[in-house]
Specification:
The structure holds two protein chains of two kinds. By secondary structure, chain A is an alpha/beta fold. Chain A has eight helices and 31 strands. By secondary structure, chain B is of the alpha/beta class. Chain B is built from ten helices and 28 strands. In chain B, strands 5-4-1-6-11-8-12 form a seven-stranded mixed β-sheet. Chain B has a five-stranded parallel β-sheet with strand order 14-17-20-23-26, with no helix packed on it. In chain B, helix 3 links the parallel strand 4 and strand 5. In chain B, helix 4 crosses helix 7. The longest helix of chain B is centred in the middle third of the chain and has 13 residues. The N and C termini of chain B lie far apart (about 55 Å). Classes of the chains: A alpha/beta, B alpha/beta. Chains A and B meet through strand 14, strand 16 and strand 19 of A and helix 10, strand 14 and strand 16 of B.
Amino acid sequence: MARKTECLAMLLAGGQGSRLGILTKTIAKPAVPYGGKYRIIDFPLSNCVNSGIYTVGVLTQYQPLELHDYIGIGEPWDLDRIDGGVHILSPYQQMQGTEWYKNTANAIYQNINFIDKYDPEYVVILSGDHIYKMDYSQMLSYHKQKEAACTIAMLEVPWEEASRFGLMIVDEDGTIKEFEEKPEKPRSNKASMGVYMFTWEKLRHYLLKDEANPNSSNDFGHDLIPAMHEAGEKLVAYQFDGYWRDVGTIDSLWASNLDLLYPGAGLNLDDPNWKIYSRSPSSPPQYLSETAQVLNSMLAEGCQIEGKVDFSILFDNVTVEEGAIVRDSIIMPGSTIKSGAVVKYAIIAENTVIEENASIGKRPEEVNMDSWGITVIGSNITIGKNVCIGANEMIDFDVLEVAK
Amino acid sequence: MRANNVLGIIYSHSYDESIPELTSVRTMASVPFACRYRMIDFPLSSMVNSGITQVGVVTKTHYQSLMDHIGTGKPWDLSRKREGLFILPPFNNASPYGIHDNRIQSFVSILDFLRRSRHEYVVLSDANTIYNFDFNKLFKFHSKSEADITIVYKNGKRPKLDNIMVLDMDDDTNRVNEISLSPNGSEDVDYSLNIILLRKSLFEHLVQSAFCLNHDVFERDVLQRNVKSLRVFGYQAPGFSAVVDSLQGYYSTSMQLLNPKNRKTLFDPDNQIFTKVGDNVPATYSYDCNVKNSLIADGCIINGAVENSILFRGVHVAEGAIVKNSILMQGTVISRDSKLNCVITDKNATVTPGKNLSGDESFPIYLGKRISV
């Protein structure tokens, strides 16, 4: 038996993130690079250790190789521990047959044994889809103070965007009265952040009940929490004020990365009291040459810049040759933008080469706004010389050089 | 013979006294170098990349920052149950001298450690030497030459330090005929980088004999004295290498890294230089900064102009500030409208607004740790 743990975190990291298209072709969404040196999963993992939660189960399923490699034994987050630490929980064979994780609640259900081993009072359910800094220990205090069965982190979103979220109708003392899933006419702007704090005894009970219900889709938001609500359990909303973004789409991933360049956006990663930890490669310092012109940008180690970079995020070991231009874009690790190439409003995935004088992406002003969008170039491919790739494209194959 | 039959020994306080500015608060091995490294990262990473699995780090005084840096050796993959990294502090055995004050005494104080190691060979390295090369090639040369001792050398102006061995070698075989210690003259010579390979048993024997005779200069009494009786060979260091011999030398060696050719061999992607992770955010460049020909580390926030400079982690350069030909160590803050030329700032130094500091390439100004101007 492991030492008793007060609060344990279960991090749902098995999702494909299909709306990220080719960026998640071979990696799970939580492993998608973010912010120059991080991956999305660094945020919930760092939040856990910064909140004093040192036992974290990470549930993986879709394309887990890179994610497993990345998490390893959890050392970058100080989660390599004698007792607790990070545990990768993949679907496993059982006597009565083998099942994939059918849905979020089912994934936790299949790991009840893991949680029981630590005998926690509370379990916080997190997802690997969001960029935010949050102190879960404060949420836990609130949960205890309210004597709730489940506390749901909630964020007030702009009314015009409210219909995109799962919303909660909350009374003055914070008790949740009603749920609305992506309603056309929202009656509330209090959106769920997908962070749930449960009293383990209650959660365990409802997981068993949910599993026994053949009509359930075994989802926290659709099934388990509404079932708790119907049964009269106390559900409360915990208000979060701060930067929080779902980076599940190309547009939101791109925009959230560039938010790092606006001090006013509210996401400060340079905070010694709330560091975001990551597994960093060992790269030499970045070098800006005599011809480099870097403005409004964030660059990671190992970058070699001889061209122009404006309003962009460059991950480690990106090369921008002399005469190349990168604007309003995100360039992931190890990619090269060769001389004369222009990259605008684009996401270039890892280890890709944009050859001389190629042009990737368009400014919104250059095309019809309805057909405009961020262009994405997949990993490990080459875009040949002089190739022009317009707005709103997604390319995951080599494109051969064309004549000028 | 493979490098994994070799024990690495790094002499962490080599020539501490040659840069009193940088070593008053730390030992040579933990002097910050090249934006994000400490001096010891270079010999340590070279050893590890060559397959060496056990390294002893000899220390003398003020080695707290070194211990803080290397910890259990994890970043170099040397945190091991079997072998790995060993810090060898002074006062280790009942030496009548207490703290060792020369190389021979310090090597005698680690004889126990040497005897316990399973390795057949030992490679010694100083910590004021910057290099990145494959020791396997050195070993191949050593065995092919049937050498007793192989000394790695570089051709150029010898460092201005005591007891630097200058080698007189046979043209064809590189057998060393004569060793002179810091001879006068300013011509290019073949000088030792103080990376020395020999059989462990021979090393133990030589050190012990010299100690019994009360000898005190390793280079003179162990190497120079035995140059005729033993087969001593020289091996030319490949790629970029440098010996830091003074504050000016530290400055010029750092500046050589602005040359892409030097960086290419020192930061070979297949033989990476490892260091302790800092968990800083990527460097941030503002809308009106201007950065040219500079090396920048993570965590820097640059709002001003930076040219021909080396910025360590977390350096802030405010609007209107101009930094030229300078080396700014971790956490340095350059405030609004200040101008710096040929300045070295130590960790967490601050230059308040509107100051003008200018040194010369031959005489850089040094601002100490946490000093505010």
